UniProtKB/TrEMBL annotation:
Renumbered residue ranges of the record's region Disordered: 185-254
Signal peptide (from-to): none
Protein name (database record): DUF55-domain-containing protein
InterPro entries the record matches: 5hmC_binding, EVE_domain, PUA-like_sf, THYN1-like_EVE
Ranges of residues in domain EVE: 5-167
Coiled coil, from the record: none
Keyword check for Nucleus: yes
Organism from which the protein derives: Calocera viscosa (strain TUFC12733)
Cellular compartment(s): Nucleus
A single GO cellular-component term on record: nucleus
DNA sequence: GCCAACGTTGGC
DNA sequence: GCCAACGTTGGC
């Protein structure tokens, strides 16, 4: 069975230990292939070491930015191998405790496949996850797609930066959304011009919170509700930021 | 081995 | 820039 994955990078400039951690879909498109180094989270590292396989699909996610969301598509093109940046003292995520003979941190390489024609934003996915049934303005989105979206770790474990996408229908749904769009395209602009509430309206949503919390139907889960469920979950969160730094360090060499 | 204080992620 | 989420650390 083929697995898919969601991997987060930061598209905006941010300097850590003198290095810009920026790695956007534009950067990725130029590079074509990028190592995913710098992850210092046990669970994420394990995914890369043990479970990612050649050809697995990757949803490329923009985090820590104005409108976070899935901005492109990629695939695994080199399976897990030791992350050499852990041994580089100048690297922001140098880990002095790791032994070269016994690598602790692993990474993979991923290859750029395509950009998302429409950004599949986190607010959109969150909104869709509140709906009891597919919205009429997105006729291509079927019941099973909606169900799959609701299961995404992105929504239930927000801070995990390398995460499995267990249900292939998630990938299908995201591909459809990215390809066809159909919600208000200009949520970006709407947000800038008119603030949150307008942006939520653009999504066909009341979730900006000004219209009463129940307006969107099944929406019940705030951050807190999600967290309570999660509290037991094992893995630590992953440093998205480190991912950016490693790749940008590479970029600079080009 | 409990749990309060602390640190980091990352959405907003 | 704020702060919720939640893992980690360290005192006991």
């Amino acid at each position: 069975m083929t697995m898919s994955w969601l991997m987060k990078a930061e598209p905006d400039s941010r300097v850590v230990k003198g290095k810009d951690v920026k790695f956007s879909v534009d950067d990725f498109e130029r590079m074509k292939v990028s190592p995913w180094d710098g992850v210092r989270n046990p669970e994420a590292s394990r995914f890369m070491r043990e479970r990612m396989k050649m050809g697995d699909k990757v949803l490329f996610y923009h985090s820590n930015t104005k409108i976070p969301g899935i901005a492109g598509f990629a695939e695994i093109c080199k399976e897990g191998y030791p992350d050499y940046t852990a041994w580089d003292p100048s690297h922001p995520y140098f880990d002095p405790k790791t032994d070269k003979d016994k690598p602790k941190w692993y990474m993979v390489d991923i290859r750029f496949v395509s950009r998302a024609n429409h950004l599949v934003s986190l607010p959109l996915l969150k909104h869709l996850a509140t709906l009891p049934e597919p919205p009429s303005n997105l006729p291509y989105l079927k019941e099973q797609h909606l169900k799959a979206i609701k299961s995404m770790a992105l929504l239930t474990r927000g801070r995990l930066s390398v995460q499995p996408v267990d249900d292939p229908l998630v990938v299908e749904a995201v591909e459809l959304l990215a390809e066809k769009g159909g919600w208000d395209e200009d949520i970006d602009g709407a947000k800038k011009r008119n603030g949150k509430k307008r942006a939520a309206e653009a999504l066909g949503s009341e979730e900006a919170g000004d219209n009463g919390p129940e307006a969107a139907g099944a929406k019940t889960e705030s951050r807190d509700a999600g967290a309570k469920k999660k509290r037991r979950s094992n893995g630590a969160d992953t440093p998205t930021r480190s991912e950016g730094s490693r790749r940008s360090a590479r970029l600079k060499k080009e």
